Q: What sequence folds into this?
């Protein structure tokens, strides 16, 4: 059947105008962050045909200056253009033969990222998100310790154990499920009051596991925990890992971007001592979703761990180019998006100076917000922010007074205010409990458009929405 005629100029002009209007609204503070419509109503207001233009209208405006809900916020126009270019080439980053520019870009970008971490001759691959990058780290750890597991499976190796802080990302448990290790064999290590893994407790846990006859496989440290934005002490943890000959992986999905700032890269001191590293530029660097890199100090190990040498794709006898650029075999995927291109394109446009300014501003906004919280009645700071996460409680008038509020009442406050702010469309931020602490707000100040005035607006709006609340 012959394809119907498409007016390319009309389609692209129409799409460009819709996107331009959408991007312009993203930068307007007077516009809504979200036009909230529950699922049952959304099915009524949209017919979900390809001609319906309400897709953008009813979507979250993640580029809005007052969207603080996730660990990714903001839109970068260079990044959006890079995705259009990438989509127009419609190829997979599996071999140089089918993606010559993108495989070369990926190598260049990975080499630069490795050098920033401190890996002198590192390796890596871009993956579809930090969870997969963390999985790569644990797969490499297992392969170094038990290479036979690749062929024989887990029945022929010792019971392996993973160690991670009590505030590590849940993807570590998921990786344990995928790898057949099991969540019971993920040992959680206590954190201090700043949310940092206690190295002394890690050493005790390693000894306890060895006494049980199990085999320590990997320790996962975190740079920028999901809730508090805390950075573990990598030097102390690395010393323990070296003593017990255990693989050290750093989940720096959020915090890795501190390496782009001369002022704040000290947060990553000791990262060069790790064996592997997860870094998500789609978080603090605002590269469009998804953009995650797995980096390893041990060149070649990733390929040893994952390669299947499929002869119909990865021919080693090609004569026209260096087949080391055929990097797809070291991935657990076959087809891969060229996510490195988005980061490369933005890096070329902004430079290190642009990224550094972006990180510095984000951290400065978090610090400013914390200072304002300490000055305002009805607000209480959970702890001083170390990075881009600022956590705090809000007390309605009904919960203020000399006595400590009932935690059972306080924990109801944030969910109610969150619901009100979403329905009003004025801003978005999230909340959560942590250990024995009742629900509190977590602000993530990554958005490049956010200013100190927006930080003030957040506190004003929470007070407006919740001042008279009775729980």
A:
């Amino acid at each position: 059947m012959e394809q119907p005629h498409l007016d390319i100029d009309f389609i692209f002009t129409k799409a460009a105008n819709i996107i331009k209007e959408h991007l312009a609204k993203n930068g307007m503070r007077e516009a809504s962050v979200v036009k909230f419509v529950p699922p049952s109503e959304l099915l009524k207001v949209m017919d979900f045909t390809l001609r319906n233009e309400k897709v953008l209208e009813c979507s979250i405006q993640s580029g809005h200056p007052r969207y603080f809900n996730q660990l990714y916020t903001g839109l970068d126009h260079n990044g959006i253009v890079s995705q259009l270019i990438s989509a127009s080439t419609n190829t997979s980053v599996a071999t140089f033969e089918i993606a010559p520019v993108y495989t070369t870009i990926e190598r260049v970008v990975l080499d630069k990222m490795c050098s920033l971490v401190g890996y002198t001759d590192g390796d890596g691959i871009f993956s579809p998100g930090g969870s997969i990058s963390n999985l790569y780290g644990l797969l490499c750890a297992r392969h170094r310790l038990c290479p036979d597991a690749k062929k024989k499976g887990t029945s022929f190796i010792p019971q392996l154990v993973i160690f991670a802080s009590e505030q590590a990302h849940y993807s570590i448990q998921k990786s344990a499920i995928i790898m057949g290790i099991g969540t019971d064999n993920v040992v959680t290590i206590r954190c201090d009051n700043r949310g940092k893994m206690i190295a002394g407790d890690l050493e005790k846990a390693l000894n306890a596991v060895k006494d049980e006859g199990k085999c320590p496989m990997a320790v996962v440290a975190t740079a920028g925990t999901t809730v508090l934005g805390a950075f573990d002490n990598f030097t102390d943890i690395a010393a323990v890992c070296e003593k017990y000959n255990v693989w050290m992986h750093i989940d720096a999905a959020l915090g890795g971007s501190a390496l782009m700032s001369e002022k704040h890269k000290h947060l990553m001191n000791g990262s060069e001592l790790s064996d592997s590293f997860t870094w998500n530029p789609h978080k603090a660097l605002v590269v469009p979703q998804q953009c995650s890199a797995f980096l390893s100090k041990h060149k070649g190990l990733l390929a040893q761990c994952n390669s299947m040498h499929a002869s119909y794709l990865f021919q080693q006898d090609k004569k026209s180019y260096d087949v080391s650029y055929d990097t797809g075999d070291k991935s657990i995927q076959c087809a891969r998006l060229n996510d490195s291109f988005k980061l490369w394109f933005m890096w070329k446009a902004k430079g290190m100076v642009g990224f550094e300014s972006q990180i510095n501003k984000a951290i400065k906004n978090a610090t400013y917000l914390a200072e304002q919280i300490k000055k305002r009645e009805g607000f209480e700071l959970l702890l001083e922010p170390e990075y881009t996460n600022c956590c705090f409680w809000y007390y309605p008038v009904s919960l203020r007074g000399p006595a400590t509020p009932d935690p059972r009442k306080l924990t109801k406050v944030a969910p109610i205010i969150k619901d009100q702010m979403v329905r009003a469309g004025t801003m978005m931020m999230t909340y959560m409990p942590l250990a024995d602490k009742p629900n509190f707000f977590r602000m993530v100040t990554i958005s490049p458009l956010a200013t100190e005035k927006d930080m003030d607006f957040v506190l004003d709006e929470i007070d407006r929405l919740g001042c008279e609340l009775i729980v």
